[in-house]
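Annex B, item 7. Sequence and structure tokens for protein A, then protein B.
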Amino acid sequence: MLDRSPPLRAKRDLGSIELERGGAMVAIRDLAAFLRQNAKIILLCFVGMLTIAFLYLASAKPQFTSIATVFIESPKVQSLRDDVGVSPTRDNPTLESHAEILRSDKIALAVIERQKLLNDPEFSGTSKGWRTKMAELFTGPSPVKAPTAIDLLGVFRNRLNVKRIGQSFVIEVSFKSRDRSKATRLANAVVTAYMADQINAKTEAAKVGAEWLEGRVADLRKQATGAARAVQDFRARTDIVDQRRAQLDLSELESVAEMYKLVYAGYLQKLTETIQQQSVPLAESRILNAAVLPNEPSHPKSRLIIALAGLVGLLGGIGASIVRQSAGGRPFVSGNQLRDFGIELLGKIPSRSKGVIKLNGTLLDAFSVPDSGFADSFRNIKIMLDLARKREDLPVVIGIASAAPVEGRTTLAFNLSVAFARSGRRTALIDADANHTGSITQSTARTCGVGLSQALSGTVEVHSIAIPFCDGCDILPIAPVGSPITAIDFFTDDRSLSLFRGLRNSYDLVIVDLPPPTRMDPRAPIACLDGYLLVAQPGRTSLDRIGELAQTLNQSHAGVLGAIVNLGGRRRRTRDFAHLIGSAALVLFRRVKLQILQRNRRPPAQPSQTV
């Protein structure tokens, strides 16, 4: 029997700044370990998003934006009934009105007609995208309807942008197109059409004013002529006797005549000015800056898209790692977390060194390169295990277990047995999972015909089952390859206890490679074992599952001797990440399909009535 180490608590020091989140201690070093552990996933997301961004930039058609500016003047408005000139200031409604005129259908239709955009594939929609071309391979070419100027208004408005610059009197007119020269030409065409519309409006207003003034002047001419004739007639028939009274009436008639004369002269002058304004109209605005050829595309913004794609890739990779690791509880990222459960960390298994041989293409033989760091890690684990044992000369049966499958149990059991054998101890390696692909038996002794299950019945001797692998290390399969007997059948047999007593007498150390928890509960062989070694791979299972397994095993006589952290075997992460992305895509597809079905079930909207 071995003494189990007392529970150890994580220590705080200056080299480890720890933050508490919901009762879980997350150290800065654990965060660094998390990033190292999930570097491939994060890098894959980062590179994937950048690849998507570059593919989009390569396939997206560039858009050029050309800008022209218009300055709204503050003209003096001359009143028809007042000679005083007024200089009103432009308020926000007036400036917004000018902006709306620039956006109006009248300006758009004028530009469409003058620039002959009905024959332009970019606006008329006669150019077909790749989706349309692919569909026509199966459905045949679809009939093309000749567009009208009204049909082009939507496309034209989407490419036109009119806005006021701050609180100034300047309005910016921009136009987007795939051709930079076309964008410049159409931006200037919009401004020119607006200026022409302003001049036409002034001309029409002057024309209407001139017609009204002509009629008014004609009436005043009659009234002035009548007043002057009345004065002359009065003078001719006035008697000298009544000269004083006549003088008063004459003065009144002359005043009326003079008034009509002045009003007539004023209206005549205004008529002349109006006719001049009609012949030479002046707009209330002027072109401040004409549009010029843009130097570079305005869309897509390559630098911004690449930066956002990289950021989304990094955040997505970190998020995917967190989701994958936290699916079963708190993520296990480093061996220091195991100390919170009273599990002593006995060592770490790094990634295999260059030149390490794989037996039968699956099982790693660390000592095929004896001076490698990979082999040194198992020597160090052997030393730490010796220190954890109660007495070095006590034979012990140690089971290698884990909380999840594929965490490196077989690699640890095999190479740890070789490490003890190379130190001079006679070691037995029991393969309790011989029928599993990549097991010790299938990698080293696939042709064996018997196993420990036959020794229970007494038909064969235990020493005849042993398959020597190296000096001092024998491999003992529980059942031959292809046998229906499983590990749980063997360990639940009452005769297995006496069999293990015999193994203790024959070997200095017995190491059992237990099946994964999905095929056998690690507590099943408790009666046969003296202790357990837990193997945990960061990112493979949750910290809570490891803690629950350790707590369960520690409650029995065969407790946990310590834990080994396997830092190798990370190439499977890509497959796990692909599975995660596939699951997320399936969920998204189902949600989109459900939304489409719900939208199709809605009653059709009632047509709006035009007033």
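Protein B:
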Amino acid sequence: MSAVWRASRAAVKRRRVQTFVIGLVVLCSTTTVLLALGLLAAASGPFDKAYAAQRGAHVVASFDTAKVSEAALARTAGRPGVEAAAGPFGQAVVAMPRGWLGSPGGSLMVVGRADPAGPVDRIEILRGRWATAPGEIVVNWSFNGSPSAERLGTQLTVPGSTPLTVVGFANSMSKSAGAWVTPEQLAALHPAAAQMLYRFTDSSTDAQLHTGLARATAELPGESVTNTQNYLTLKQAFSELADAFLPFMSLFGVLGLLVSALIVGNVVSGAVVSGYRHIGVLKALGFTPNQVVAVYLTMMSVPAVVGGVLGTLLGDALAGPILKVSFSGIETGRASVGTVPTWVYVVCLLGMPALVLLAALVPALRAHRLPAAEAISAGGAPRTGRGLRIQRILGFTELPRPVSLGLGQPFARPGRTLLTMAAIVLGVTTVTLSTGLTSTMLAMGNAGRGDGGAQVLVHADEQGERPLPLLGDAQIEDRLRSLPGVQRVRARGLAEVSLVGHTQPVFADFYRGNDSSYAYEIVEGRMPDAAGEIAAGPSFLAQRGLRIGDRVTLELNGRQVPTTIVGKESAGNARALDAAWETLEQLAPGSRAIEYWVRLSPGADADAYAAAVEAVDPGLSVSVEGGGNAAVVTVVTFSTVFTVLLTLVASLGVFNTVLLNTRERRRDLGMLKSIGMTPRQVVVMTVTSVAGLGVVGGLLGIPLGMLAHRLVVDNVGVVEFPESMKDVWHAPQLAAMLLAGVAIAVLGALLPARSAARMTIASVLHTE
């Protein structure tokens, strides 16, 4: 084995370019594979992991304490099918004023609970501490990120009770309450309901959860259950953004796996085939066939291991930011979600070197059987076959001789050519898919802009230390319209309302003004423009089994307004709907807007307008919108990263193919130079040998990329793109996609072509 190691080490040092190329290909391929597998694996179960960490409740049930006693509720914990239970906890609803902790106001469900731990729904303290005395309250933090320490000590005034001081912020995966107080404090709030938290042995479907709750409450009086919430609804809300990204994650992942496997196999097997002469020399020196195979496997394992380790580190660095953005559905506290599973790292660290060794083993075993003399002569004798015949046929055409010679070269190695062309096809497919997705997402981000200018957002609610505005709602809107440069103004009100018959409250946006361009694009129906009309996104409608034409009743502070769904928006939060201002007037007369969207005329100075607004009223907060959108940025960034990686890997595959071809054809190149071929003609011939593959790859990859684009945009669960956003292909764009295949081929061929052009005749033919 010492001889094998010395021969392998010498081969690695002698073939520096080949070793570097193999290591670089493995590095890029490993990075691509880790991102692909990591994204696919992370999207398959982050909610379950976080929910299990907090022992989240499968069902949160509220009971009317006038119809059932606490003792009877406690006995339900021992019913068949109940794995664990917590409660009963007293439950009351208090009014939350507008602007308290940055909220739009509304109802706050408060639960009396002495301990955040327990067998079900272990509440996680994010900031501060748990409430231990009357007059203290812990708020369920319902925003992404951690709450600021400055908010601790904020007071909530409750009619008929002492003020409640915020002593902590917490997170409940079960969404079991908006806030918690001690049981003694809750008694002062005069609760009319009690809460039980259940985990069931069978909980994978809605039917099983319904059956489990029915068994648990079978001995209770009829109609004692007033409200229920199951975790499957929360799971759907959590994963809605991840599910939206999953289709193109999957496609990019599959493309990454295919391209990586093709290129690694092509590069490594080609490296072994090009080393047949070296294999013959080793055999002539006395190496056994098994030792020869061991030399080549060892020689390939060095760059494979180094590239695999570096690729894993690079992939891990890239995966973190992408996963952080992708998994931002509901709040998860500090629970670890969106992380790359350990097995993905193991697969990359062990699987990629194993793939390299497998790709090297097949041609090495073929060389294992070659006699030494035949192996030494491999590549030295003039080559015959399809490639030479096609070159002769092309020689009778009007094509320049370097071009005709180059076009015939791919036919000399059909297997290697097919693998290289397959990589180019997948590279063009990736570029086409990425371009289509970027165009669609940018169209969505720019929806409604029309020919308008800059967009300014004016906040009229409490912003940090800024007080409420001095001017009234109507006065603010009049002043905003009167300032120079204004094209359109739209006011927005916000309230947390209840849907009668549904358990979860929703956020309702109420719009007023002459600008309808800021809402999501309508894909079916129309925008609400009168009292009693609402519109919502596909996820909102799907989770509640609603469609256009259905009627729902909104409730706020005891007032109810029947409404009709008149439009489906292209996107939207699963807990948000849009309505006209007239509906808000019926629910809460005298409400005022919390913000105003101002569209300026083209060319108007947004900064000057913002300064003028702040001079009108110090209580107004102004920001100039840059038009950015988190989903747009995520998709564009993700597709760009994968496109660059896959294009680089495909170009490296072409580079390696051309490098091996020029080394195998050193004798032919020397003969051509000796009869007058110039270095420039050598470059043209070498680049032409793969440029044709680039054209064919582009013609095949473009329709595949267009099909993949349509497959993605038609299957994003939380977004329904209108046809105008899907139809992004035009003749100049398609021509650019065709050139992408040629660019991939030429980019990979240029360096080895220039190297071949610099070879001297004497260095090539010195053995003749």
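Comment on protein B: Residues 328-335 have pLDDT under 50 and may be disordered.
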